[in-house]
Amino acid sequence: MNKTYIDGFTLRAMVLTGASKIEIEKSKIDSLNVFPVPDGDTGTNMSLTLASAAKAVQKLPVDVDLSKAADAMAYGALMGARGNSGVILSQLLGGFAKALSKAEKIDAHLLAKAFNQGVDAAYKAVVKPVEGTILTVAREASESLSSKVTDETEITKAFEIYLEQGYHTLSKTPEMLPVLKQAGVVDAGGQGLLTVIEGMLAGFRGEIIQEKAIKEQKSYVTQTFPVSNFIINTNDIQFQYCTELIIKKMTESDITQEQIRGFLENKGDCVLVVGSDNITKIHIHTNNPGLVLEYCCKLGSLHDIKIENMREQSRELEIAVPNKNIGVIGVSTGEGINEIFRSLGVDFIITGGQTMNPSTENILSAMEDVNAKEIIILPNNKNIILAAQQAVQLSSKPAKVVTTKTIPQGISALMAFNGELNLNINYEKMQEAISFVKTCEITYAVRDAQHGDFFIKAGQNMGIIEGEIAYVSDEIEDVILSTLQKVINNQDGLITLYYGEDVTEAQAEELLQSISKLYPNVDFELHYGGQPLYYYLISVE
User: Fold this and answer.
1) How do residues 392-407 score in pLDDT, each as one tens digit?
2) Is pLDDT above 70 for 228?
3) What does the alpha-carbon distance between residue 443 and residue 534 come to, in Å, rounded to a whole number?
4) 522 with 495: CB under 8 angstroms?
5) Distance CA 100, CA 429 (A)
6) How far is it, in rounded angstroms, from Cα 505 to Cα 159?
7) pLDDT at 198 > cutoff 60
8) Is the dihedral angle over the CA atoms 233, 234, 239, 241 positive or is it negative?
9) Average pLDDT, stretch 68-74?
């Protein structure tokens, strides 16, 4: 016999079947990504978000009260939220749960109210809501249900009304967002939401959708690297002094950062020379910091000089990690990129980025683990910003999210960081710094697609400038040269290339020689990034 209401037992079952349904369909949803880049992870992010909600309700007894089941669902989704789509889904479920705070069961009227409160919460969570997305699908489906629900409406019928309007709205999303129409797809987030609702309806009906998919699902492990993990045997330290400084107002304007690096490489290891025409940041592990300072003093005025005895520092770390005023958390992937971030002062690295968006809980856990009074977070990916902001709202520590969307922006922000300044000033300076760097990404297409004037074939190389496809070719060097030609202007003086795990050092150096001949008035830097999927990340300043 069909039930006429939802109680705690039923909601618990619905969350499990909703999670199973989207787990099964996640690959299809991932394929709806409008860009043919290897990071279409909307379905994966939403699946992992709901899996976290499912694990939370699984811990409850089967005779759980409705409000407790709803709260567990909302909390699990909140902590497990990944990517923009996952965060929006968690807000939809959070608002839904708030409507049930004093209820013992859900009828069609309360279901409509809960859906509407979920929409309100989701819209408030997004600074600039975009129509034609999951938000529009959720809003119009909720509005349709509210307008049609009556005292006689059964729960099953209420879900059917919601889904009917939801799919109608989803079919219109290509007309709302031209980029969807050109790609020939509907909005992935909207499709994901309706997939979840379909799964929940199946749970209400008593159906089981491969429930073991939740029980056996591998946990999404995000690696973290706190400072305390890098304590090493003092006997293994070849170069004792970690030396950092900033050179301002270069007096020898003809000297390049490549020449500075060449000099320093003979004086130690872990050499990093980054910056612009007016400011150059130096990092080196050396046994002769005096020689480094003497050399750099000839190049300009020295600032923020820091020399640390790493043998003594390592022994101190074995006792306790010092409490800092401001700690920095960065999201990164790739051995080389991670090392650069650590050398620039990042206290905690969360491994993530394209295809690997960390959850709200991952970021919140890192914030608590960093031994600092206040926190700055560098997401370094547009799809991680919302989760980071959500973590800040939940944290007991004052924190700011610098809205870095790329690794080069993250590095630029770190150049502006000064641990002696307060949180707000650092945030403003770092936020300003990211506007001075342009990012190019070199990757490959995972499927055939049309984007703008480009007809792209799977496997072709693509150049992306600030998130927009700028050039496509079968030849990777052609892509890089043509992409740079589109982005470089007369004011640019430094180009930095970070080569990925699929590029050899010899290949990267050969490419650098070719590019540098075309731009004799520009300084070039080459660093091993080790990032997956993207052959090169390029910053232009």
Assistant:
1) 999 889 999 999 999 9
2) no
3) 5
4) yes
5) 43
6) 56
7) yes
8) positive
9) 95
Q: Which two tokens mark 123?
A: 């819209």
Question: Of 109, 106, 167, 83, whose CA–CA distance to 360 is shortest?
Answer: 83
Contact by Cβ (8 Å): 331, 337: no
Residue 278: alpha-carbon gap to chain centroid: 31
* CB distance 1 to 19 below 8 Å: no
* Same structural domain, 370 and 426: yes
Q: What is the CATH number of the domain that holds 267?
A: 3.30.70
Token digits of residue 108: 């069609």
- Are residue 30 and residue 150 in the same domain, yes or no? yes
* Cα–Cα distance for residue pair 459/37, rounded to 1 Å: 10
Which neighbouring-strand residues pair with 284? Answer: 243
- In one-letter notation, the amino acid at residue 234 is T
The Cα–Cα gap between 379 and 389 comes to 10
Same domain, 178 and 256: no
What domain range is 241 assigned to? 221-304
Vertex 219: Cα angle to 335 and 408 (nearest 5): 30
- Mean pLDDT, residues 198-207 taken together: 94
Beta-sheet strand order (sheet of 468-473): 468-473, 461-465, 438-444, 536-540, 494-499, 523-528
Asked if the model's pLDDT at residue 452 lies above 90, the reply is no
Is it the case that residue 230 has pLDDT exceeding 80?
no
How many whole angstroms separate alpha carbon 247 and alpha carbon 229?
Answer: 31
Distance set, CA 236 to CA 166, 428, 514 (Å): 61, 39, 39
278 has pLDDT over 90? no
Q: Which of 123-127, 174-178, 336-340, 415-419 has the lowest mean pLDDT?
A: 123-127
Q: Are residues 450 and 423 in the same domain?
A: no
Instruction: Look up the pTM and report it.
Output: 0.78
